[in-house]
């Protein structure tokens, strides 16, 4: 971890960080370290705390505001950065995707979020024979990426009211490969505008186990 040193502050002066000799300028900045998963107690946070000792009260408040901005990472906003994700998420295999529990999917299906959701689309990414063997009620079977693109391009994805949302929830058998891959493809496709996407952790297998 790098260490920061600061020259004494004069009245009204702004602190300027000075990296020790030999430290690269474009690595491990506080913002980049946050996005790489910096946790409490890291050297970057200790350096910020040490900096606060030298600052006047007004400047310390600015430092606190910066720390709060770093804590509220853009990763917590939906794809168009307009609002935070609605559904509670859980930790999953791919840190770049938003995972929900089977219980949250059941809550969506039973209308617990109806005051906020205008439409929810459950995308089953499994093969057709798997889908025919049993599937989540109301789910559409779209096993190929082109199927997803054609389906989502045929229907509007923007909610009619600003207070309502359209959410898309992907899953496959275990939500380890096919479901997350389809979610990622929707994020990266220039044709689609899908701001709020989720993957069901554990996939259909775990959902059926909990809600047969």
Automatic annotation (TrEMBL):
It catalyses: O-phospho-L-tyrosyl-[protein] + H2O = L-tyrosyl-[protein] + phosphate. GO terms for molecular function: protein tyrosine phosphatase activity. Gene3D superfamilies: Rhodanese-like domain. Residues 1-37 are annotated as: Disordered. Keywords: Cell cycle, Cell division, Hydrolase, Mitosis, Protein phosphatase. Residues 116-212 form the Rhodanese domain. One of its GO terms (cellular component) is cytoplasm. SUPFAM superfamilies: Rhodanese/Cell cycle control phosphatase (SSF52821). CDD domains: Cdc25. InterPro entries: MPI_Phosphatase, Rhodanese-like_dom, Rhodanese-like_dom_sf. Its EC number is 3.1.3.48. GO terms for biological process: cell division; G2/M transition of mitotic cell cycle; positive regulation of G2/M transition of mitotic cell cycle; positive regulation of G2/MI transition of meiotic cell cycle. Belongs to the MPI phosphatase family. Tyrosine protein phosphatase which functions as a dosage-dependent inducer of mitotic progression. This is M-phase inducer phosphatase. The gene is Cdc25b.
